[in-house]
Design goal:
mainly alpha; 424 residues; single chain; 79% helix
């Protein structure tokens, strides 16, 4: 089932990443062509906020992008535990297919989103139903043991790398077809991939959670889902039972490292297209080439090196990854040339490809086998919460002080999780 899961994720991520290089141009279009009035109403709120805290008026589209990115991730944070709970009762396959259908609907709405309201609604539907990636981790847990779990997690990382290599570039190519400012051709391409994914998954995926191991009621699953969206439970790992005091303390510290890293990373990651759009005048094609470069480096790193990491060396590799992220963001924010930018992007791709698989593997070493699913569910929810907060906070920083200072501060802030990791 690993191969089936991998192909399904690649199909999904090829569609999901289509929009990444298009965000700046999309928001520029809606700022001038929104008949629904939502963009203008939102801009009024942004200007009020800007005057209230006394920051200069610039980069409005960056803040809009950050708000949309955080909204999408926040909806994933709320919906993924519920999706997981439902799959614990009804099985992975039917819930996975429902998620894929929701994703397809969101792309269909984007394809006809001539106004900002429809586009925002499409993002809301997409964020609410984007539970298939979270379910992929559950599937990998179903079909792997403790020794092979890290490799399964790395395989998911490789799928992300492939998606980021091809998806943005192809999406940028499709963006040149037709005359719609909301890039309907790119949306139709993503919709086609989503429909193919539904058919492929329905035919080839075999259920990995047998009925004998399923929960007997949705209520018990939803009770656990609440613990996965309750910050107090998340940061204390309280649903994970049977941990010694010292082991729980180590797991909590590791969770803090993961959350802070993803909070910083997701915010800087989301604003990357705005940096290159405003500072280097990148159009959608140049953005697509940039993401393809990142994807190739990440795929080579994860497929050729991270998957071969020996047990016990995950912390050492995570340290290396964090140390690369510091110069990566400083160079990306401060560079005035393509050479400096791509040097930073290389460090960024190498460092980020190490971090999540290695930290996840470190977390999976804690707790008993009967609580691995709960632990990994909390782990994914911590990541989703970080991604829900990071883009909007970083966008405010970008909007307030500009790309250079924002990225330098973000890069230096990576020292915090690096120092914390030493005690894990």
């Amino acid at each position: 089932m690993q191969a089936v899961m991998f192909i399904s994720l690649v199909l999904d991520l090829l569609g999901f990443t289509v929009i990444l290089p298009l965000f700046p141009a999309l928001l520029d279009y809606y700022s001038k062509n929104d008949a629904s009035g939502l963009y203008a109403a939102s801009l009024t709120w942004v200007i009020t906020f800007q005057q209230w805290i006394g920051i200069p008026s610039r980069f409005h589209s960056v803040l809009f992008g950050g708000l949309l990115g955080s909204l999408f991730s926040f909806l994933q944070f709320l919906a993924s535990p519920i999706t997981g709970a439902m799959s614990d009762v009804y099985g992975r396959k039917p819930i996975f297919i429902c998620s894929l259908i929701g994703v397809a609907v969101s792309y269909g709405m984007w394809a006809v989103a001539s106004n900002f309201t429809l586009f925002v609604l499409a993002r809301i539907i997409g964020g609410t139903t984007k539970g298939n990636v979270s379910l992929a981790y559950s599937v990998m847990t179903d079909i792997s043991d403790e020794k092979s779990r890290a490799k399964g997690m790395a395989l998911i990382g490789v799928a992300f790398s492939v998606g980021f290599t091809i998806g943005p570039a192809v999406g940028a190519v499709f963006s040149r077809w037709g005359s719609t400012g909301w890039f309907a051709a790119s949306a139709v391409y993503a919709l086609s991939l989503a429909l193919c994914n539904i058919v492929y998954f329905y035919i080839f995926f075999k259920e990995t959670l047998p009925e004998t191991k399923r929960r007997t009621s949705v209520a018990s699953g939803l009770s656990q889902a609440w613990e996965l969206i309750n910050p107090k439970s998340l940061f204390s790992f309280s649903p994970v039972k049977g941990l010694e005091k010292e082991e729980r303390a180590k797991l909590i510290r590791l969770g803090h490292v993961y959350f802070i890293y993803l909070f910083l990373y997701s915010g800087l990651e989301f604003t990357l297209t705005f940096v290159t759009h405003h500072k280097h005048s990148y159009d959608s094609m140049a953005q697509g080439r940039m993401f393809s470069f990142l994807g190739v480096v990440m795929a080579l790193m994860q497929g050729g090196y991270v998957r071969r990491v020996k047990d016990g060396s995950e912390k050492s590799m995570a340290n290396k990854g964090l140390m690369m992220m510091i110069p990566a963001f400083i160079l990306i924010g401060a560079s005035e040339t393509n050479w400096g930018l791509y040097t930073g992007l290389t460090f960024y791709a190498l460092g980020s490809s190490m971090m999540v698989p290695c930290l996840t593997a470190l977390a999976s070493c804690h707790g008993s086998e009967s609580h691995k699913g709960t632990l990994l569910g909390i782990w994914r929810s911590l990541g989703a919460l970080a991604r829900a907060i990071g883009p909007v906070v970083t966008s405010i920083g970008f909007w307030s002080v500009g790309a250079e200072l924002c990225y330098i501060i973000g890069g230096l802030s990576m020292l915090i999780p690096l120092i914390m990791l030493q005690s894990c």
